[in-house]
Amino acid sequence: MASVQGLMATYVQFIPYTVTVTSAGAGSVEIPVGATHAYVEAIGGGGTSTHGGPPGQQAGGGGGGYGGSYLAVVAGQNIYYSVGAAAGNSWVNISANSAPTLSSQGALGAAGGTGSGGTGGTGGTANIGATTYNGAAGTGGGGAVGGGAAGNGGAASGRTGGIGSATNSPSLPGGAGGANTSPGGSPGGGGGGGPGGTSAAGAIQISFS
Prior knowledge:
The protein is mainly β. Helix content is about 0%, strand content about 25%. It is elongated. The model has no long low-confidence stretch (mean pLDDT about 85).
């Protein structure tokens, strides 16, 4: 009589989990055994702000854009990513160690535009994904100016930074824009147009299921 142990197959239950990276840099994540799909998301870095100089030349940076795609994956292969610093694109690619050009390859969040010459930076718009949201614009001109929020967030108004997105799809919210002398919120918020108004790096997120 065959032993019960010899007839039993080994069973490993896969538990869905998420990898989030908010520091600028590149890397890869191995697709775990049992995973069949991944929702990949990227938010670009916030645009650089401008302060000082002649009156009326202050300008807040634009917010980073958002891209997200739900893709079939193969266990054991790598997913590559890059998180943009301020004014840098962020991306995730399931097939190559380079920025994707199609939503079937991954997602890309475009960097926010630089504020300059009294004109606020535009939000990141060259996004790639099945779902995309543009970043919001910063403001410019005399006095204090604000930075735009990242993907699906609010535009700056006067010295007030744009409100960050409560959520994108499914779960990576964009940072708020910086108000006047405040830095942009993480991830992807544009900096305010006053001294100290630095912009935030972007982020990526990979949710395995």
